[in-house]
Amino acid sequence: MGQRTQADRDAITIEIGYAVFSGCFAAALAFGAVYGPALAFTFPGSARMALELTGAVLAATVFLLRTAHVLWRFARRPEYDGR
Description:
Elements: H1 6-40, H2 45-76
């Protein structure tokens, strides 16, 4: 196995940053879609808590899936041979 060049290391760093940023953005959208109605309308405390918990679990799941998807896709690109 050869050593990675500086360009390879930079590409990996940028891809990780993009994966985390896009994962956070997608998670925020998912949380807002679930918890948003609780902010707009009046719900009992238990329903508000259920929406908050559901939104948090969905957001965490979306973050993990989005981040993993972006990084797997990067690793499979023909330009990146995984040296």
